[in-house]
Specification:
The chain is α/β, with parallel strands linked by helices and about 600 residues long. It has 24 helices and 12 strands. It has a 6-stranded mixed β-sheet, sandwiched between helices. Strands 4-3-6-7 form a 4-stranded antiparallel β-sheet, covered by helices on one side. It has a two-stranded antiparallel ribbon with strand order 1-2. It binds adenosine-5'-diphosphate and magnesium ion.
């Protein structure tokens, strides 16, 4: 076969300068409109637009929490409260000497960052609904404290908002200041959104186990996101205090919190442009139709219902016309195993994974009952047995989802800690799932890139500012993912949303995602389920080639033909115990196996 020498590119219009311009066009138009608005010389409109920018500074950060990470932080108005009072109190000299206003604004951001993490931390333990309640509770506490702590906040009487000196003095100067900060907030959150951190957030939201198996540590990532969202919320608060010119606790209403939240939902989860437009619309809408102001909550609710029922993907989905182009009906998956050496690189060291005396019970069920298993690099090891015999559980022990009661798990002689699924990727252990776990709302290419998350070097801050190391990471990862997609035969679907794919294609997407890790060990859980006979044959060729490139493959499968065609060793499980182990020939003629499992 011929070697591909030209780089493999994603299909569709997303590449090339025209495609890039197309992607940025909406931002350019929005930016121009914002810059030109003062030409109208309408100060009322200027104030509304300024408010929209301020709300967006907060929502841009909240968007990473709600839209990307899927955390229901419904009371984020508390960050606005904290930032507003911090900035106002420091600038007015209510705590010590008067602070320069810009410094006071930064302090507002700092306080927001700290409390963003404090409020966010429960998300690591609590499930969605309970977390939503904690954020609401905190918002109430913030308002109550503002009411009670009269020395600093002025209590119910309130305190004057800070006034920014030239060049950002009240009026159009302040307008441009807020516009600038909104643009910066957009830029840094968009950078995060399109980085490995952003993809990891979406993976946590929609496919948490797959995210962990790809080496994504949820706690660390969420803390960083809450820090950023808190800081942006605090800065928005400082700006808000200045816009209001006088702040009292009742300025920070529940409706406002709902506005931020709903603006993101109607914008579309996992998008930056959609929520920006959503926030803009929700801020401006009640103002244009002045009689509607007292109806604003009703209006938000109605809009939300409409969006949820008619376009669940929100504004972002409406704008995503590319994914409405029909896909070719009769698609064929034609893997290119000849590309594997380029995907996997040198695998000279042959890994040996050894399970010894593993015992794991679920209540009274002995799911695994004293299992010994060795998986060698360069070989395909078949794991077969009737339903419920413990095959998936075995994979889950190696992947770190379960802690067995007894036994040891070693990789090349060193102990692999039980549990801690996200460290598996560092040991270059990859897997696929019995039911494919992919992020339906992300493109196929992004899904595959998730598999290479641990290969990135750029820090969160570097991604935020799109510094060279981040850009290098992205380029390298994108190329590796395209190569992996070409290897499994799906490169023509790279830019397509994953939820538009057929089931059989998702199985190959999962394999591509695993390959991007350059795995020393690859575990496949019933990869042939739901595939046609021809697809199974091609899959077999691909799996065998992966093992020949040096990877240790553990294959759980029901298709006996596939097992006996490609495996070097086979272990048969029954009721969590090894019933037989040996070469395919030995297993095929094993009396008990034939009678208990394979059939006559
Ligand atoms: P296989 O993949 O071989 O079909 P599994 O490993 O999924 O089987 O299951 C082995 C046994 O453990 C079955 O009896 C199953 O019902 C039980 N089991 C698996 N996972 C759990 C769980 N999370 N909780 C309770 N029982 C489980
Ligand atoms: Mg199973």
């Amino acid at each position: 076969m011929t070697e591909i020498t030209t780089p493999i590119r994603a299909g569709g219009a997303s590449t090339g300068w025209l495609g890039r311009l197309e992607g940025k066009l909406s931002w350019i138009l929005l930016g121009l409109a914002g810059l030109a608005l003062p030409l109208l010389d309408d100060s009322y409109m200027g104030t509304i637009a300024t408010r929209a920018y301020i709300y967006w500074v907060l929502s841009a950060g909240l968007n990473l929490v709600v839209g990307y990470a899927g955390q229901i932080a419904i009371g984020w108005v508390s960050m606005l409260t904290l930032g507003a009072y911090t900035t106002a109190a420091l600038a007015a000299g209510r705590v010590g000497p008067e602070w320069p206003v810009y410094l006071a604004l930064l302090a507002g951001g700092g306080v927001g960052a700290v409390f963003g993490v404090v409020v966010g931390l429960p998300a690591l333990r609590l499930r969605t609904f309970y977390f939503a309640m904690t954020t609401l509770g905190f918002a109430t506490i913030a308002t109550q404290v503002a009411l009670a702590w009269k020395d600093v906040t002025g209590g119910g009487v309130g305190t004057p908002g800070p006034v920014f000196p030239w060049p950002f003095d009240p009026g159009w100067g302040f307008y441009y200041f807020c516009f600038l900060l909104a643009a910066v907030a957009t830029w840094i959150t968009a950078n995060i959104g399109s980085s490995r951190y952003g993809r990891a957030l979406v993976a946590i939201r929609d496919a948490e186990v797959a995210a962990e198996a790809s080496g994504i540590a949820k706690p660390r990532l969420l803390v960083l996101i809450f820090l950023l969202a808190g800081a942006l919320g605090g800065i928005a608060g400082g700006l808000f205090a200045s816009l209001q010119s006088y702040i009292t606790p009742d300025a920070f209403t529940f409706e406002m919190s709902v506005l931020f939240f709903i603006g993101i939902l109607i914008g579309g989860r996992g998008s930056i442009l959609g929520p920006a437009l959503g926030t803009l619309i929700l801020t401006v809408l009640p103002e244009i139709a002045a009689p509607l102001v007292q109806w604003s909550t009703f209006l938000y609710a109605a809009l939300l219902l409409l969006i949820v029922l008619v376009i669940p993907g929100g504004i972002a989905d409406l704008l995503d016309y590319r994914n409405r182009r029909p896909l070719e009906q009769h698609r064929e998956i034609v893997p290119r195993p000849d590309l594997l050496p380029r995907v996997l690189g040198d695998q000279n060291a042959r890994t040996l994974i050894a399970l010894k005396g593993i015992r794991l019970h679920f209540g009274g069920v002995k799911a695994i009952d004293g299992l010994d298993l060795e998986i060698h690099g360069g070989e395909v090891h078949g794991l077969i047995g009737p339903n419920g015999s413990g095959k998936t559980t075995t994979l889950n022990v190696v992947s770190g989802y379960y802690r067995p009661r007894e036994g040891s798990l070693r990789v090349d002689g060193s102990d692999l800690p039980f549990e801690r699924p996200h460290v598996r990727a560092q040991w270059r252990i990859a897997r696929t799932f019995q039911t494919p776990r992919v992020v339906g709302a992300a493109s196929v290419l992004e899904n595959v890139m998730i598999g290479g998350t641990v290969h990135g070097h750029g820090t969160f801050a570097e991604s935020m500012l799109s510094l060279p190391r981040h850009r290098l990471d992205e380029r390298v990862l994108r190329e590796a993912a395209m190569l992996a997609l070409a290897t499994v035969g799906l490169e023509s679907l790279a830019s397509v949303r994953a939820d538009r794919l057929q089931h059989s294609e998702l199985r190959f997407v999962e394999i591509a995602r695993a390959l991007v890790l350059r795995p020393a060990c690859l575990m496949l859980d019933e990869p042939a389920a739901g595939l046609s006979a021809e697809e199974i044959r091609r899959l077999g060729g691909l799996i065998k080639a992966i093992s020949r490139a040096g990877t240790a493959v553990l294959l759980v499968e029901h298709h006996a033909d596939l097992i006996f065609d490609i495996c070097d060793r086979v272990t048969v499980l029954n009721l969590g115990k090894v019933l037989a182990a040996g070469t395919p020939e030995e297993i095929r003629s094993h009396r008990e196996v034939v009678s208990a499992y394979l059939g006559a």
